[in-house]
Amino acid sequence: MLAFLTRRILGGLVILLIICAVTFMLFYIAPGSNVARLACGKTCSPELVAAVAHQMGVDKPVWQQFLVYLGGIFAGRTIGDNYCGAPCLGYSFHNHRPVLDTIVDRLPVTLSLTIGAVVIFLAVGVGSGMLAALRKGKLSDKAAMGFAVVGGAQQIFVLGPFLLFLFVYSTHIMDVPHYTSFLSNPLRWAIGLLLPWVCLAIITAAYYARLTRSSMVEVLSEDYIRTVRAKGMGQATIYVKHAFRGAMSPIATLLGLDIAVLLGGAIITETVFNLPGVGQLAATSVKDSDLPVMMAVVLLAAAAVVVANIVVDVVYAFIDPRVRLR
After folding, report:
1. Rounded CA gap, 250 and 208, in Å?
2. CA 246, 129, 190, 162: dihedral to nearest 10 degrees?
3. Where is the ABC transmembrane type-1 domain positioned along the sequence (predicted)?
4. Under a CB-based contact definition with an 8 Å cutoff, are residues 296 and 308 in contact?
5. How many CB atoms lie under 10 A from the CB of residue 142?
6. How far apart are CA 73 and CA 87, in angstroms?
7. Gap between the Cα atoms of 103 and 142, Å rounded
8. How many CB atoms lie within 10 A of CB 78?
9. Which of 14-28, 43-57, 193-207 shows the highest mean pLDDT?
10. Which ranges of the chain would DSSP assign to H, the alpha helix?
């Protein structure tokens, strides 16, 4: 297990290094991407732009710029007259704050959105998928799969405004979605994020329902399931302890990626519901051409995906005894 984790972590670090290099090249040396001009502003004179370029170090060769940026992540670096402590992701061109501080301020919103949505779409999606597999071919099966088809066909930028119009602006059943710290008021935290959670859950649960049903139907036809049935085990024990455990592998894979994507920033969801999370920060940074923030969000999303894949690989060995880590 230790050797496996070491290899996977080292492999993940290499992947992150490659992503960092590619992202740096795209954002900092792409044609038309004048970092000094973007940092200085449109009204700066050519002399001032040159001074800013020297101060930021972007007048150096590209490989030196990248090494300085990479070194800042691990050891910190000096940018102009300011020292940026490790992990240094630069300073925002828009608010002139350290990028890491800006992301940390937005991260609780994205974490809250992720946690609530995952709980709801797992409960609804996996639960309806298991019910459909148990009642294969019956009315409950058809109803669950009908929900999956309709839900999976929705898009957040359509479903979100519809839910806002229906529950907020038309009937006034709910308040406008907002973020309240869980520690300060857990009830207001849940109420303020309920509509975004439901919107994400309707769409995402549809995929889990179909995946759970197909996985359960496949596992229930396996030889080892017939063996435990022949031993006289109860239906509930067979279904939950043996069949569901064998069907969890593809569900765990999809869940790991979904969590990583949400942590990297649910851009459309946070924009539609006006939630000040990492996703909305990413959209704002694109509009403002804030390259350090854009690059930091990309690295955050990549790191979330890499970590999620490592965790999923480890979880495989615990949920499915047929899988062994070597």
Report:
1. 10
2. 140
3. 107-316
4. no
5. 12
6. 4
7. 44
8. 12
9. 193-207
10. 2-28, 35-40, 46-56, 62-75, 99-134, 139-152, 156-164, 186-220, 223-230, 235-237, 244-265, 267-272, 278-287, 291-319
| Tokens 């005894």 sit on residue | 321
Q: CA–CA separation, 298 vs 89, rounded Å? A: 11
Enter the tokens of residue 14: 């290499």
Contact 209, 125 (CB under 8 A): yes
Q: Which structure tokens are listed for 179?
A: 């973020």
CB-facing half-sphere around the CA of 194: CA atoms within 13 A: 12
Residues 6+ apart with CB under 8 A from 323: 249, 316, 317
- Torsions phi, psi for 151 (to 5 deg): -65, -40
pTM score of the predicted model: 0.85
Contact 303, 16 (CB under 8 A): yes
State the DSSP code for 232: T
Under a CB-based contact definition with an 8 Å cutoff, are residues 262 and 110 in contact? yes
Look up residue 156 and give its DSSP letter. H
Give residue 139's identity as a one-letter amino acid code: L
For each of the domains in the chain, give its residue range(s) and CATH number, in order of start: 16-98 (no CATH), 100-323 (1.10.3720.10)
For residue 110, CA distances in Å to 28, 84, 263, 265 come to 27, 25, 6, 7
pLDDT (average), residues 73-94: 84
Dist. CA 284–CA 296, nearest whole Å: 13
Is the model's pLDDT at 38 over the cut of 60? Answer: yes
Tokens of 254: 């999809």
Whose tokens are 């999606």? That residue is 125
* Total residue length of the chain: 326
Q: Are 202 and 194 in contact (CB under 8 A)?
A: no
Residue 176, amino acid: V
Sorting pLDDT into bands at 50, 70 and 90, what band is 32? low
Paired with 69 in beta bridges are none
3-state SS assignment for residue 91: strand
Place of tokens 């959105």: 113
pLDDT at 264: 75
